[in-house]
Amino acid sequence: MVAISKEDIKKAAELSKINVDGEDIDAIYPNLNYLISLIDEECSFDNNSKTEYITLDYLREDNISRSFDKNDILKNSDKIKHGCFTVSKMME
Amino acid sequence: MEYDIRIGLEVHCELNTKSKMFCSCKNSFGDSPNENCCPVCTGLPGALPSLNKEAVKKAIKTGLALNCQINNNTYLDRKNYFYPDLPKAYQISQFYEPICQNGYLEILDNDIIKKIRIKEIHFEEDAGKLIHDRYDDLTLIDYNRCGVPLIEIVTMPDIENINQAKEFLDGIKLLLKYIGVSECKMEQGMLRCDVNVSVMEKGSETLGNRLEMKNINSFSAAIKAIEYEAKRQIEELRKGNKIISQTRKWDSINEKSVLMRDKEESADYRFFKEPDIPFIEIDDKIISEIKREIPILPFERFLTYTKKYNLSKDDAMTLIRDKEKSDFFDKCVLINNNYKIISNKIINDFAKISPEEFCRVIDFVNEGRISNSSVGKIFQEMEKNNISASDALDNLGLNQINDENYIEEIIKTVLEENEKAVEDFKNGKKNAVGFLIGQCMIKSKGKLNPQILNSMIYKIIEKGE
Amino acid sequence: MKELYKCKGFELASLLKKKEVSSKEILQSFINQIEKKEKFLSSYITLDLENALKKAEELDIKRIKGEDLSFLAGIPVAVKDNISTKGLLTTCGSKMLCNYIPVYDAFAVKCLKESEMIILGKTNMDEFAMGSTGENSYFGVTKNPRDIKKVAGGSSSGSAAAILSGEAPFSLGTDTGGSIRLPASYCGIVGLKPTYGAVSRNGLIPFASGYDVIGPMGRCVKDVSLLSQIIYKYDNKDMTCKNFNFDFSNLENYSLKGKKIAVIKELFNSNIISSDVLEKVNKALKIIENMGGIIEEISLPEIKDALWVYYIISSAQASSNLSKYDGIRFGFHPDEDSDIEKIRTNAFGTEVKRRIILGTYILSSSQYEKYYQRAVNMQNQLIEKLDKIFDKFDFIITPTSPRTAHEISEKVNNKNIYDEDICTVFASVTGIPSISLPCGVDSSDMPVGIEISSKKFSDHILLKMANALEKEIGFDNDIV
Hints:
Strand content of chain A: 5-15%
Strand order of the largest sheet of chain B: 2-6-7-10-1-11-12-13-14
Radius of gyration of chain B: 31 Å
Oligomer: heterotrimer
Order of helices and strands of chain A: HHEHEE
Number of strands of chain B: 16
């Protein structure tokens, strides 16, 4: 298995919206590579195992049920304006 | 150097289910912000999706109407990206096993039938709405639309010119309305599309690099975007520049496209199977049931109306655009073969009456019992009082007189009473006949068969010379 | 009569039924114990004692009126802090949710409330359930009540410690890769990881959606069985929840005679498992043989693959599940100017960030096939393998953990953190039910856990077996 490079870690962190500095990367690097090293390269790709399915009968009926008040939904944020959540103005 | 263009379209259509895709919140437009929300569609921790059966059925129906193969085994995937209108930071969509594949829609490019292939149709959830213009420094977020069921119809790059693009978009919109999966109200954002444009040397087999355009809010904007982009790419090629795969944004105010991102650094959506939703098996029995619900579709009707019933293209389209009228027409032509007059009357004088009685009135016109111009009045009488054609005729006293002896008598009386007019006519004043005809009509309370009156009056005047 | 907090759950329920004691008295006994012990242990993040007392009073009145009440009505229970409780702070052990108050109850919590159990509070845990020692909590390390210099195990650290310390008679934990079984083993109590899909995940704040299960923890198998009856209910709002009729009655009515038990050779390897643990687990195996059970050693070399399968898939799913934490609709958001990167970097702990980054890397388009798809394929193979084993055998037995509770902040090399899970992950990736019960102590007097697993949806049978074994082992887990 090709090892994860420090550049890979940096890119993955960016994609996850997490800031990492050199120290962080150095700390993560051995962990991640250890896990990758465990992967069995030999194991086959194909598998014909039976997967479990549900049929359309199990799906939810198309009915409306009003269970939540708007205030409940907004409650956990204190940055509400005009009944809307807010973020800093972004580039459209 | 001449260039060909190839266009692919990705049409997003909001389904008209009562509730959202993954929760029982109301699927509705225009309510006050965050009114129709719950932990599932606002991505609160611990909430789980519950798939809407009707949404899946509508997706299957759309696929069948577009001649697709329905995947008997399907599942959903997570499409991961960060954006404030996406509360879970992933959209539950389909990437690996879309529910429908390999279909087509037929359109007419002038008089040639063209098949636009459908690569796939998949279902997914819509995102929330961002409101940018309320504040300078803040963007507001309304999640009412978040979780509304969407289907995405993806074509192959088969569209070769603007006309085909227009026909496709119109055709798809009409089809979606016909099968009842969406009201297609453009102003409510129920139908949106992304456009892919590539340009190549005329006669070349290889497609140019594909350019994707997003943020297109109406079909007319789509057409403008295609025109602009094709022109821009051709200009670039003529200058000797290459076209690289990119994603561009359509700026509808300035009517131009703007670079969004290079396809090289295209977003990594990290698709993987949605673990909260099991694999779904769709058996052929259900697919057949859904297929039976599909009415005869617009394109097929168009061919039948123009070829079998010889209606003009315009008349055919006018009928077809309104399914109620088209269905009515289909019923009438089984009873009565005056196709042209039937279509004409449906287009101009449609009323809520039965096809049988409708056709009876048409027959009355042909028999000369009533004049063509009375038809509208009769229909309204029938609809208002819920009565048959003959009863309406009686009520309105509209039975037309075809008896030539009777007509001759009226004419003779009128000629006697209006000697001056007869003189004028004999002296070359052709209009005087019109006056005399009018007098006959007044005398008979408008009941004389106009054609018979017309031919007889000339004969009688001449005889009288 | 011994102090109420020292009683097992079913004993308390009997006392209540016989009206020898009131709900309020029971509750007060636990409250006193909490007040005594919490400053040393940090089993809880949030206590809800005022409401608990109100509820106890209400129930006492109902009981006096002669109303028909469920067997566990009026008995206190602690709930792990990644399970949503309406109106009660739910943090997942993280700074990211230090201010989050759910507006709905998890389905399992609804079940507790319907049976009128009394929720004491929310227990401490490794952040977002990632960890196996209880040291990864933003709210402090949970200590092992048996030796407070040692870890309680994780990630359901508080749920396990509270049982052993007499701070709760019942608790709900969650298990993704061993998070109920491992702390149960370290604390010498009983913890059950149900079959995946047997208990609704609605309201469980997810770590790895394909593995997370809510499960019962208690002093003894009987208590765990009683609590199971309350939470094993079908929920059609969770599409991964299955509608299966479990029959938890007749727990005592079970004989091990003739039952075939598989022992996985690779997990009895002295290179992986400490000698103390092996000794005690082997002793328990002898007891099983004396009870008539037929023990057979089998080799399952793929068992080691379960570890990387687990870490690949769980990290991938976690990276996606934890993307919604951006401070917009809920959660930590320090000030107006914070952007999403600042919030996430600040409010997630190290281990969480590590796993998110790993998960993101695994799912990225260039790596997906290499890692994620491969892991899914291997997982399917493991499921098939285990199906075949259960065609022949009734149970699989392994140690719960390679060693017993270690000292807090013990410097372990990176390798070892993940290897703690070697005995528990195979049941997680295959979705089978698995229970840990104490079978002895090691040379430092710390409990050793034995782990029994059976085929999917045989949870009720698993409990019967565990109950029978527990009796014979006779482990004393009196409140410390």
